[in-house]
Amino acid sequence: MVDWVTLSIPFAYLGILVGSLAVFSSLYRKNKAAKAANLAPWFSAHLPRDIYLSLLHIDPEPGQPKIPDSILKAALLRRATEDIHRIVQIRNAKQALQVLLQRGSVGDDLWQRFQRAEKEIEEELRDVVQEANAFAPNWGQTIFQSASEMAQNAHIRESLSELQATAQSEKEWWEKRKAEIQSEFMKELDEEKKPAGVVTPAKPMSKADTDDDAVMVEAGGPASTPGKGKKKPQKGKQ
């Protein structure tokens, strides 16, 4: 006769073990999901997306016109432009973040935030393409190209604004420098115009210098030339 009690013990143990693992796995995933949900987002609020969705879901009151498609298209294009900026930030940060993660310089929380931002931007791009194709066929294939051009133009305008902000200070510095160069050049011209034979008057001698020169003359004046004071003998008549 089969002892069912003895056979049921291993099956009961196995069932308890599998149930415990299932409960632990479920609790772990819930805890991880809750922890990921509490992490701060990588990007700030997507304002152009919120504006587009608000315009899209506005229900006009009776007697008021509907939001024109041109305004909705412009809002969607502005939303795509913001997505271009975020894609550039993601690409620039990914490689550096991976290196820091391998070195242990950053924690897993930061990497989870980055991965969640990547997923969000992928979903955002798909949503924008679908919305663009809803307005016009195949517009989803070219909307990001137009958005990229708009982003580049905005960057150029920002650079020009920065240059214009510093133009006044640079202009003042150049005017001052030009005046200094002109002053130095005029001084050189004045020196070149002086006649070559003109001798700059010497500094007048003081009384002490005159007395010193007189003492030197009396003490060691020029010696008399030998033979100069002797009278040459004349030849007598023979």
Automatic annotation (TrEMBL):
<dbReference type="GO" id="GO:0031207">
    <property type="term" value="C:Sec62/Sec63 complex"/>
</dbReference>
<feature type="compositionally biased region" description="Basic residues">
    <location>
        <begin position="228"/>
        <end position="238"/>
    </location>
</feature>
<keyword id="KW-0812">Transmembrane</keyword>
<keyword id="KW-0472">Membrane</keyword>
<dbReference type="InterPro" id="IPR018624">
    <property type="entry name" value="Sec66"/>
</dbReference>
<keyword id="KW-1133">Transmembrane helix</keyword>
<feature type="transmembrane region" description="Helical">
    <location>
        <begin position="6"/>
        <end position="28"/>
    </location>
</feature>
<feature type="region of interest" description="Disordered">
    <location>
        <begin position="187"/>
        <end position="238"/>
    </location>
</feature>
<protein>
    <submittedName>
        <fullName>Uncharacterized protein</fullName>
    </submittedName>
</protein>
<dbReference type="Pfam" id="PF09802">
    <property type="entry name" value="Sec66"/>
</dbReference>
<dbReference type="GO" id="GO:0031204">
    <property type="term" value="P:post-translational protein targeting to membrane, translocation"/>
</dbReference>
